[in-house]
Write a structure and sequence with these properties.
By secondary structure, this protein is an alpha+beta fold. 18% of the residues lie in helices and 22% in strands. The strands form 6 sheets. The chain has a 5-stranded mixed β-sheet with strand order 12-14-20-19-18, with no helix packed on it. Strands 13-21-15-16-17 form a 5-stranded antiparallel β-sheet, with no helix packed on it. The N terminus is likely disordered.
């Protein structure tokens, strides 16, 4: 007794299932069917023998009926065919076509399974949208085991990769090849650039090449006309926001015809001509445009708002000033020169004595020194000229004047001839000797001299001479004295009213005439406590002392 079996056929292969649901897979090109026969043990050996005999008889009858078949007696003379035909004792393979009813049973079994446990033949698997091709198999075969190939994983992988700022020609990009079922391919950077250039060259004019066609370029109205005939008029027609008309203008030496420049940020009018000052320039104060058009002194004075005086404009070199008021000049010097009469004048001065207090004297010409000293010059009402040295701002304080401090004779009243002594006074006059020990010298050549000798002052007599001196006090007491000087000796000969307050030795309360050997000079010294006015008449007897 043999087991029954079922066969399920799948595309390109099939399976065989026995009663114990044991599956065996076979190919359609080499079918091997192993049929296992499981003998059923009999409890009764006799029944087994009888069954064997019956089987043998049936077999022999079948063999006898088939004339073309080999007789069992030929291949099983011992009668053991029951064991020989057991499937378990067979070796090799058996074609499905030689198995009785095999195809029918297999087809029925396969038909029952299709659509239930297996899918019927289709190029597209259930639940998918495309055929599983060799190309897809190749694509899937290139994916590493365990790789995350989901759509969401790809952006993450790209974002997490290291960056490269500038690709080089050998760099590669991933590509899904639509011509190969969207298989994975690589594309080098150099091939990408070449492909893009080939494509873009069909859309755009290459930068370094000559333009071959305007067909793909959107042009403004008038552009083609201007390119064909590039005139100023055609350029003006092409532009939509131009101003003015005429020829196109370039930077160097353009000739503009009545242009309106608006408000330029910078204009150089070095070579500009024809600009109307009165109407072409704005922002001028009153009178400025008139002065620029007619630059006269009067028009300049009209344009200036804080001028002083009138007349012609004055410039630095050799100006001619007409009765100017200089004011408090701060210049370091004033030079008056020229062969004709030149003078430095102060007009309108009223004759008056010098101010003896305060610090202002309206009737004076003042030279102010750096040491707060005013040297004042003025006129008396009689016309006499005076000079006074005083402290600046305090005219009650008078200061000494030193003439020729470095040497040189001083003459008073001399006309044309140089003074022959330290002080030469021509004619009668008055001399006040210097204060604080300053002194004045006179010559015995004087015919007649009157001197005011202040208290404590010294009047020196030139020592080069010897002779007779007559003195006469003119104001206080009228004393008249005769003095002999010579050889460094002074003798008081006598006086009209006695010698009184006179002596030949410096003495307190006296006026003395004595010889000072330290300076080799004769000198009058006033020590009476008040000034004295002496008329002095000298007589020179010799030129030696």
């Amino acid at each position: 007794m043999s087991d029954s079996f079922d066969v399920e056929v799948l595309p390109d292969e099939f399976t065989v299932t026995d009663d114990s649901d044991n599956w065996t897979i076979y190919t359609t090109t080499d079918i091997q069917i192993t049929i296992e026969l499981q003998a059923v043990g009999l409890n009764d050996a006799a029944i087994a023998v009888a069954a064997r005999d019956a089987a043998i008889a049936a077999q022999l009858a079948a063999e006898a009926a088939a004339a073309s078949q080999m007789q069992a007696t030929m291949y099983d003379p011992l009668g053991v065919h029951a064991d020989a035909f057991e499937r378990a004792n067979h070796h090799g393979t058996q074609l499905a076509a030689t198995i009785s009813n095999f195809n029918t049973a297999a087809d029925a079994r396969i038909a029952a399974a299709v659509g239930v446990s297996v899918q019927g033949y289709s190029a597209i698997l259930a639940g998918t949208t495309a055929s599983y091709t060799v190309a897809l198999d190749t694509k899937l075969g290139g994916i590493a085991a365990g790789a995350d190939v989901t759509v969401s994983a790809l952006p993450v992988a790209i974002h997490g990769a290291a960056s490269k700022a500038t690709p080089v020609d050998a760099d590669e990009l991933a590509l899904s090849d639509s011509a190969a079922a969207f298989g994975l391919k690589k594309l080098t950077w150099v091939n990408l650039k070449a492909t893009l250039k080939t494509y873009l060259d069909t859309l755009y004019q290459p930068l370094a090449a000559a333009i071959t066609s305007w067909s793909t370029v959107v042009r403004a109205v008038g552009f083609d006309t201007f390119v064909a005939t590039p005139s100023s008029a055609n350029l003006a027609s092409l532009l939509t926001d131009e101003t003015g008309t005429g020829a196109n203008v370039f930077a160097t030496n353009p000739v503009l015809v009545t242009p309106n420049l608006g408000t330029p940020s910078a204009v150089n009018l070095v070579n500009g001509t024809g600009l109307p000052v009165a109407s072409g320039i704005s922002g001028f104060a009153a009178g400025v445009a008139t002065f620029l058009a007619t630059p006269s002194s009067a028009n300049l004075r009209a344009a200036i708002t804080d001028e002083t005086g009138a007349g012609a404009a004055v410039f630095a070199n050799t100006p001619t000033l007409v009765t100017p008021i200089i004011g408090d000049a701060t210049g370091s010097s004033v030079t008056i020169s020229g062969s004709s009469q030149s003078s430095l004048k102060r007009s309108g001065v009223t004759g008056a004595a010098p101010a003896s207090s305060g610090g202002v004297d309206a009737n004076q010409f003042v030279v102010v020194g750096n040491n707060n000293v005013d040297w004042r010059f003025g006129l008396y009402s009689s016309g006499a000229v005076w000079a006074q040295l005083s402290l600046n701002g305090n005219y009650a304080t008078n200061l000494p004047i030193i003439l020729n401090p470095n040497g040189g004779n001083v003459g008073i009243g001399n006309t044309g001839s140089a003074p022959g002594s330290a002080l030469t006074v021509a004619g009668a006059g008055a001399v006040t000797s210097g204060l604080n020990g300053s002194d004045v010298a006179f010559s015995l050549d004087f015919a007649s001299n009157t001197f005011v000798i202040a208290n404590g002052a010294v009047l020196k007599v030139q020592s080069a001479y010897s002779g007779l001196i007559i003195t006469n006090e003119q104001v206080v007491n009228g004393n008249c004295c005769i003095w002999l000087v010579g050889g460094g000796v002074v003798s008081l000969v006598g006086g009209s009213q006695g010698v009184g307050e006179y002596t030949n030795t410096p003495t307190a309360g006296k006026i003395s005439l004595s010889y000072d050997s330290s300076i080799s000079q004769y000198k009058f010294t006033n020590q009476v406590g008040a000034s004295r006015t002496l008329a002095i008449i000298p007589f020179r007897t010799r030129t030696a002392a």
